[in-house]
Design brief:
heterodimer, A: 249 residues, alpha+beta, OB fold (Dihydrolipoamide Acetyltransferase, E2P), Ribosomal Protein S8, Chain: A, domain 1, 3 domains, six-stranded antiparallel sheet, four-stranded mixed sheet, 28% strand, B: 293 residues, four-stranded antiparallel sheet, 14 strands, 29% helix
């Protein structure tokens, strides 16, 4: 663990052997790292240094609570109000409002655009995030014109706030192997008695849990929040799921 | 500028549908409080109350001042509440919101106007010198039910507080430092506590205790009952909202009494624990001013 994911502190010098080198691709720096020309790479946050030799990228994985939008993040936004050609959305209480154009939905034209009320939730992608500018969202893939699961969220369900690091772990392709998060699999599997639910995880630290049964939503939401707050490992998550299922049945 | 985090439509709908099935988002019963923690500081008169994620710190202080001219025989007792932006993005400095005004008025009614503190005992020289006792309430974190948490913090702080001992000798008033004489407790008459009910549903038929911030934003009405462990009601505040059946209000007050007895027991236990912690070597009883010397 300590070998492939070394801890770094802000301002530290990164050992040269840790920086990936690729014959063709340029080196890509992610969050928590800063390039100081000509050739210094300095961490700006304390956390685990993660490198990907195939994509030739590196970043610092750390947990925080304040969301700063960045491009291509999938987020859960809440509509604040509508103007003549876009919706204003809130991503987090301390983040400036983001704009979501009326036409940035799958198959939307001036006549067929979805009408969203203030307070409604949308699952969206950040299409533009520059410093000192309001971020811009979209619910459609710009090149294919498909929604890919993005769009307004309907159905019975509730939002649960989690920390940003936890939301990123949930969004990993294999959360159980890479992030040590098996709680959702357990709830849907035999430990949870095969609960039926769906989730939408936003990188802004919000998770929407939907299910036909309100009881399931409460159990899943509590499991997520308590796993995050107690920093539970896989074994702790198993105990938590068993406890919650027993309490709520 | 940070915005007040108004809940989304999905959350509002879900809270109500879940409550109709007797479910709460944190898995509590409808009449169950969140885990309540009470701790005292190193100084006398500092109480820290944690109710789930809500956290309130109250600090009592006393100074010698001139009494009000229309009440020469009474001391001065004030409660100051402050809701800072630290508690929630909705609060701003020097701009009291409705929550803050209601909180300070309810505390005033519950603790001050119910005569919990005997203000006549604060008088030192009639018309010239008296104690001014002040309690500062700081909300450190706001996750709903500020009223109950703050009231408990204020009562705990005042019961924990000790004011410097004084003596009158031939017209000369002397105030002793803690090194000279052990400080004395306030003359406390009874301990009132607030219990807040939140009502949900079309006609307010679902009554819920200790609402979280999300539930408070969705509720159709609320009712705060203040009473002491003997069941003497100090005030009932039902400020607007949906009208509620009188019978259910009666039921609410009787449940509130059991909760107040729990609070009262907790506070007594914590005060006894704190006294034991301070009483190193068992000399505290010797130092008491009310002992025969």
């Amino acid at each position: 663990m300590s070998n492939d994911r070394p801890l770094v502190l802000p301002g530290e010098t990164i050992d040269l052997s840790l920086i990936p080198s690729h014959p063709k691709n340029p080196l890509r720096l992610g969050p928590g790292l800063r390039h100081i020309p000509p050739s210094d790479i300095v961490p700006t946050a304390a956390g685990e240094l993660i490198t990907n030799p195939v994509k030739n990228s590196m970043w610092v994985e750390y947990n925080s609570n304040r969301y700063i939008p960045s491009q291509n993040d999938i987020i859960l936004a809440q509509i604040l109000r509508s103007t003549s050609d876009f919706y204003l959305c809130s991503l987090a209480p301390h983040t400036p409002p983001a704009t979501l154009p009326h036409l940035a939905f799958e198959g939307a034209t001036k006549k067929t655009r979805p009408v969203l009320l203030p307070g409604q939730l949308v699952y969206a992608r950040v299409s533009l995030a520059n410093a000192h500018m309001d971020p811009e969202l979209e619910c459609v893939h710009a090149s294919t014109g498909k929604a890919d699961g993005l769009g307004p969220i309907t159905g019975t369900g509730c939002i649960f706030d989690v920390s940003l690091g936890f939301a990123r772990r949930l969004l990993m392709a294999r959360p159980a192997q890479d992030g040590g998060l098996a709680v959702l699999e357990m709830l849907g599997g035999e430990e949870g008695g095969g609960m039926a639910f769906e989730t939408a995880v936003g990188r802004n630290g919000r998770v929407w849990v939907g299910s036909a049964s309100a009881r399931t939503v409460v159990v899943v939401g509590r499991a997520l929040q308590e796993t995050d707050r107690g920093r539970l490992g896989v074994e702790g998550q198993r105990r938590l799921v068993k406890k919650l299922v027993r309490e709520m049945s | 500028m940070p915005r007040d985090a108004e809940p989304s439509l999905n959350e509002k709908q879900f809270v109500i549908t879940a409550l109709q099935e007797n479910l709460r988002l944190d898995g509590r019963e409808l009449d169950q409080y969140r885990p309540l923690e009470l701790s005292f500081g190193d100084q006398y008169g500092a109480a820290d109350v944690q109710l789930g994620k809500t956290r309130v710190l109250a600090k009592a202080t006393a100074e010698v001042t001139v009494p009000y001219t229309d009440r020469p025989l009474d001391g001065i007792f004030t409660i100051a509440t402050e809701l800072s932006p630290m508690a929630s993005p909705a609060f701003e400095v020097h701009r009291p919101t409705e929550t803050e005004v209601l909180l300070s008025r309810l505390l005033e009614k519950t603790v001050r106007r119910s005569g919990a503190l005997d203000t006549e005992s604060l008088c030192l020289v009639a018309g010239q010198k008296c104690w001014s006792v002040r309690v500062d309430v700081h909300v450190l974190s706001h996750d709903g039910n500020l009223i109950d948490a703050s009231c408990l913090a204020v009562v705990a702080a005042l019961r924990h507080f000790r004011k410097p001992d004084t003596s009158m000798d031939a017209g000369v008033l002397s105030v002793y430092t803690p090194a000279e004489r052990e400080p004395v407790p306030l003359s406390w008459l009874h301990s009132p506590f607030c219990v807040t009910w939140s009502f949900f549903g079309e006609e307010g038929e679902i009554a819920v205790l200790d609402a979280t911030w999300l539930e408070e934003q969705v509720r159709v009405g609320s009712c705060t009952v203040s009473l002491n462990k003997h069941g003497e009601i100090c005030q009932i505040a039902k400020l607007g909202g949906t009208p509620v059946d009188a019978v259910s209000l009666l039921q609410c007050t009787s449940v509130a009494l059991t909760k107040v007895k729990e609070f009262s027991g907790l506070l007594d236990r914590k005060l006894a624990e704190d006294l034991k912690r301070r009483d190193k070597g068992g000399f505290m009883s010797e130092l008491r001013a009310e002992n025969d010397r």
